[in-house]
Amino acid sequence: MNRRKFIQNTALTGAGIATGVSAISCKEANTTSTKASNTATTLSKPNYISISTWDTESANTASGELLAKGKPALDAIIDGVAVEEANEENTTVGIGATPDREGNVTLDACVMSPDGDYGAVVAVENIVHVAALARKVMEDTPHVIMASKGAEEFAYTQGFKKQKLLTPASEKAWKEWLKTSNYQPAINVENHDTIGMLAMDTSGEIAGVCTTSGLGYKMKGRVGDSPIIGSGLFVDNEVGAAVATGMGEEVLKTVGSFLVVELMRNGMSPQKACEEAIHRIVKKGDRYKDFQVAYIAMNKNGETGSYAIHDGFTMMKYQDGKSENIKSDYFNKS
Ligand code: SD4
Fold first, then answer.
1. Catalytic residue among 10, 91, 194, 254, which?
2. pLDDT tens-place string over residues 80-108
3. Ligand 1 geometric centre to CA of 223 (Å)
4. Distance of alpha carbon 22 from alpha carbon 28, whole angstroms
5. Ligand 1 mean position, distance from CA 212 (Å)
6. pLDDT (tens digit, 9 = 90+) per residue, 241-274?
7. Does the predicted TM-score (pTM) go above 0.85?
8. Is the domain defined by 6-330 classed in CATH 3.30.1490.10?
9. pLDDT at 192
10. Residue closest by Cα to atom 5 of ligand 1
């Protein structure tokens, strides 16, 4: 058995050896893994699967349909999220997104390939398709993260168009916000927010992407978790992948997506791994009552999971030609 197969089997049968996780996690990993392995034996692995945060049906269906045609996971997710980046009515990604408190729309994105490569752009203005730009950084530069003006100038050299991202509607909403300048990120924004998307293609390869304008009315220069490897997104093609949405500061402090993938490596199901990553945040104190964080994850067997702090989070899933919006379980039941 080669190393890759061994790790795959280990993750799925729960024989994982816990390294670098807390004793509690290891214990849970061992108990959960039995359940995960039971599930794994009863479910057949899907031919392909695309999942995404929130009610992002158009983007996730676009990705799923490409996967169904045999496209690689990386191509499918970049083209999938591009649908919503170009949708002016979506106020959380691409054109029409909510600006910072000074009226600048600045976008963050990152991508990870099945090879474990990573590319990201942070605080980019005037470019709609920042997920595709993050892929360009990954594939066509010697770097992994490019920021602000440098990323924007690089985009033009790669043929990206300059476009004004602040639309009349997003400008109007910002001017309205300025009247009070009350900064209180909403817990769920109309079930539409940062798009994190994970896909497994017909060859079983996993890739992930995250694209966002970050928190609405953030301070100028603020960067969230979404473009940061291990926080907003992590893919390990031997184990699985995870992506986050919500209050990026809290995801960054717990390196959430990496945590979810490592928990899966040690035997947890995607569902239990998402739950444990949320517990790492809420156990720090009562502040979680004021913000939302959610994770979605998939493992190499095509099993998926999602979990949030609060009610209201959903995950899109496209599998075997069928699209579903799955309501996520959550921590705060009080
Ligand atoms: C951020 N995590 O910039 C992003 C925002 C988000 O749902 O996902 N909102 O912190």
1. 194
2. 999 999 999 999 999 999 999 999 999 99
3. 9
4. 10
5. 7
6. 999 999 999 999 999 999 999 999 999 999 999 9
7. yes
8. no
9. 63
10. 214
Q: Whose CA is nearest to atom 3 of ligand 1?
A: 214
- Sheet containing strand 322-327, edge to edge, reads 145-147, 118-124, 107-112, 206-212, 195-200, 49-53, 314-319, 322-327
Domain boundaries, the chain: 6-330
Q: What percent of the chain has pLDDT over 90?
A: 82
* pLDDT tier for residue 334 given thresholds of 50, 70 and 90: confident
For ligand 1, atom 6: residue with the closest CA:
246
Which residue's alpha carbon is at the smallest distance from atom 7 of ligand 1?
246
Q: Which atom of ligand 1 sits closest to the CA of residue 245? A: 8
Respond yes or no: is residue 194 known to be catalytic: yes
CA of 34 to the centre of ligand 1 (A): 33
Rounded to the nearest whole angstrom, what is the distance from the C-alpha of residue 268 to the centroid of ligand 1? 25
